[in-house]
């Protein structure tokens, strides 16, 4: 059964930035958009495994720092013409605290 884990306070994730969470199944990148929305993706681009947490956040997308692939933060899917996806994790905010479902 999946459980919700307290990760950090929302203010600890910069707008248009990310924070990395280490897990037994690999690193997870928690992203915050300029509008304050929070998303979580496996911290690995489907193309060549680049660290998405080090990419540029723009709108509801992140651009991989290695080869410029763009991925949607809400689904983890690559933006055309690129193909592929990375795992998405559910997140929620409760009283200013970010929770991640593992």
From TrEMBL:
Domain Rieske residues, every copy: 4-100
Keyword Ubl conjugation: no
Any one GO MF annotation of this record: 2 iron, 2 sulfur cluster binding
Swiss-Prot/TrEMBL keywords: 2Fe-2S, Iron, Iron-sulfur, Metal-binding, Nitrate assimilation, Oxidoreductase
Keyword Oxidoreductase attributed: yes
Annotated NCBIfam families: nirD_assim_sml (TIGR02378)
Name of the protein in its database record: Assimilatory nitrite reductase [NAD(P)H] small subunit
Protein source organism: Candidatus Accumulibacter cognatus
Gene field: nasE
């Amino acid at each position: 059964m999946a459980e919700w884990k307290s990760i950090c306070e929302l203010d600890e994730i910069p707008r248009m930035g990310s924070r990395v969470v280490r897990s037994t199944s690999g690193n997870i990148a928690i992203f915050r958009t300029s509008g304050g929305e929070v998303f979580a993706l496996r911290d690995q681009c489907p193309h060549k495994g680049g660290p998405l947490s080090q990419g540029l956040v723009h709108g509801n997308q992140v651009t991989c720092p290695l080869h410029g692939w763009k991925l949607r933060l809400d689904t983890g899917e690559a933006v055309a013409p690129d193909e592929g996806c990375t795992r998405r994790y559910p997140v929620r905010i409760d009283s200013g605290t970010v929770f991640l479902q593992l």
